[in-house]
Amino acid sequence: MERGGLLGRHSDLHLKADDLARSLAFPGPIRLAEAHLGLAAELLELCQSIGRDDFTVEHLGVTWRGRRDRLVVDGIWYRLRRLPDAPPRLDALPSPLPRHVQAMLMSERLQPGGLVYVTGAAGAGKTTTASAMVVSRLARFGGIAYTIEDPPEMPLNGWHGDGYCSQTTVAGDSSADWMESFRGALRSQPAATHQMLFVGEIRNRESAQLMLRAASNGFLVVATGFGTDIVSALDSLAKLAGAEHQAMLGNMVRLVIHQRLRDGRLEARALASPSASGPVAARIRGGQFVHLVGDIQQQEALMIRNISPLEVQDHAA
């Protein structure tokens, strides 16, 4: 086993900055083996040199997503999760999505742009699903994708079939840094090319508004967010974007996915809005989020009959 593999065989490492011998490895927790403390010291030094709370770091061929935790009573810890070596694909997820959800994520109806919002609780695999969608659509349809992440969590940069992904790390933690990253993507639109924008997480009002602007400019925006269900996730996003942008949100939403892991199996529900003229769009514009429950149920009935809600030509009620 190569030196990097000694640490890389773990899914997670929690390194205690002032006492590496008390560090933890996962699955576990277990104590980090004494024979691995030298490698852990190298990795810790790299983490400390970055100087940010959220970051990615590569050590001996293994890439880790990191978080500097400064609120623990016994000092600073660095929480690291090993990132996969290869980009995810929708048809090869460790726990597959329901077939009808996969089909909608890959629908050609999404090519003109709009917003796909992947929601769920922490640890539900939102980023994996969103990243797999970007990679799979690039491989099938070509075009270019930009990402805005803090930090990047999947190895997306490069060619996927005839499509290319340009992965971006946000320069800092402030709203201004996020806004500049959005503006950079908006200024980078090539002519006559299918374009996607993957936003790792919508963190503030400015980002939510710029995301909607990108969708209105022809990007297929793929974003992740938290929510206990589809309705609460959309309601929270509307509040974050602000009342003055609620109409744009209604016009731009094309697909909302809510997923959760239960006993290691991925479960997902979906709400499609094929166009700005449909009833789902009208309800979002009007802030009638509670009424979306009925739309979700109606669409699930369609999917039982193998009819994709994204392919249905709808008109506002």
Question: What does this protein look like?
Answer:
- The chain is of the alpha/beta class.
- It has 2 domains: 3-82, Beta-Lactamase (2-Layer Sandwich); 90-311, Rossmann fold, CATH 3.40.50.
- It is 33% helix and 25% strand.
- It has helices at residues 3-8, 37-50, 99-105, 126-141, 175-186, 205-216, 230-241, 246-252, 279-285, 292-304; strands at residues 12-16, 24-26, 30-31, 54-59, 62-69, 77-82, 114-120, 143-148, 158-160, 163-166, 195-199, 220-226, 253-262, 265-272.
- The chain has an 8-stranded mixed sheet, with helices on both faces.
- Strand 4 (54-59) and strand 5 (62-69) form a beta hairpin.
- Helix 5 packs parallel to helix 6 (205-216).
- It is globular and about 65 Å long.
- The N and C termini lie far apart (62 Å).
- The relative contact order is 0.11.
- The mean pLDDT is 91.
Entry summary:
This protein is α/β, with parallel strands linked by helices and 317 residues long.
The share of residues in helices is 25-40%
Distance between the ends: 62 Å
CATH topology of the largest domain: Rossmann fold
CATH architecture of the largest domain: 3-Layer(aba) Sandwich
The whole-angstrom Rg is 21 Å
State the low-pLDDT regions, or none: none
Q: What is the number of independent domains?
A: 2
Number of strands: 14
Strand order in the largest sheet:
9-10-8-11-12-7-13-14
The CATH homologous superfamily of the largest domain is called P-loop containing nucleotide triphosphate hydrolases
CATH class of the largest domain: Alpha Beta
